[in-house]
């Protein structure tokens, strides 16, 4: 099968030398890409900037901003049977990118931000994707409730939720502890390495393929 995975943070330019970003390392998305490739799937990895080596045997699509990632996903998603959105996409970007480096002047500086497009939220409605759709929810509170809200709003078959306020798991950690949030049930997985969870999750999504969502 063909599996599209988004991974890593996005970078939203402020001026030629500065940007806004977040704490995503990309480890979970790359672990998924690695596991899927090892199982013989075709993997399209649409990634924001990370420090991680690109796994062997995958189609790697590097992107920077949320707008770039949106365009890459729009282009590639039609080829996928399964799409897993593990990227931590910036919700906002600077309204304008200054052409020259912004100079120090007053004591305060105000940046105006505008909303980025919701890539996962566009998968069903705008891109017409009808394969297996998996989102991630990195939460600091009310993990189950927020994940279920995302599942419904974005038309996902599954949301993988974790609590990023915990220091031992989540962002930049090698380990994670996740909840599989389906429309009708929640299945906790034991704390494990992102590598191990990557393999478990690929097995879970393989099991969600039916004749109606297979390309
Ligand atoms: O940012 P949020 O918590 O809403 O992210 C939930 C899911 O939506 C994640 O799977 C993330 O990759 C995806 N997302 C996206 N485009 C955005 C924001 C989030 O694809 N602009």
UniProtKB/TrEMBL annotation:
Residues 2-206 form the DNA/pantothenate metabolism flavoprotein C-terminal domain. It comes from the Bacteria. The lineage of its organism: Bacteria, Pseudomonadati, Verrucomicrobiota, Verrucomicrobiia, Verrucomicrobiales. This is DNA/pantothenate metabolism flavoprotein C-terminal domain-containing protein. InterPro entries: CoaB-like_sf, DNA/pantothenate-metab_flavo_C. GO terms for molecular function: catalytic activity. GO terms for biological process: coenzyme A biosynthetic process. Gene3D superfamilies: CoaB-like. Signal peptide: none annotated. It comes from Roseibacillus persicicus.
């Amino acid at each position: 099968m063909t599996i599209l995975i988004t991974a890593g943070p996005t970078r939203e330019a402020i001026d030629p030398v500065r940007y806004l970003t977040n704490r995503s390392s990309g480890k979970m998305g790359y672990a998924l890409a690695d596991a899927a490739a090892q199982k013989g799937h075709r993997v399209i990895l649409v990634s924001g900037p990370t420090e991680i080596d690109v796994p062997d045997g995958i189609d790697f699509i590097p992107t920077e901003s949320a707008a770039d990632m949106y365009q890459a996903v729009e282009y590639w998603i039609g080829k996928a049977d399964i799409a897993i959105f593990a990227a931590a996409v910036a919700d906002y970007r600077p309204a304008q990118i200054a052409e020259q480096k912004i100079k120090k002047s007053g004591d305060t500086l105000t940046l105006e931000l505008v909303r980025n497009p919701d890539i996962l939220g566009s998968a069903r409605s705008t891109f017409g994707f009808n394969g297996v759709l998996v989102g991630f929810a990195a939460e600091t509170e009310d993990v189950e409730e927020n994940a279920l809200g995302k599942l419904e709003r974005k038309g996902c078959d599954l949301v993988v939720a974790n609590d990023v306020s915990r220091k031992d798991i989540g962002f930049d950690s090698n380990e994670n502890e996740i909840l599989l949030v389906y429309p009708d049930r929640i299945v906790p997985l034991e704390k494990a390495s992102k590598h191990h969870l990557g393999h478990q999750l690929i097995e879970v999504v393989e099991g969600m393929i039916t004749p109606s969502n297979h390309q």
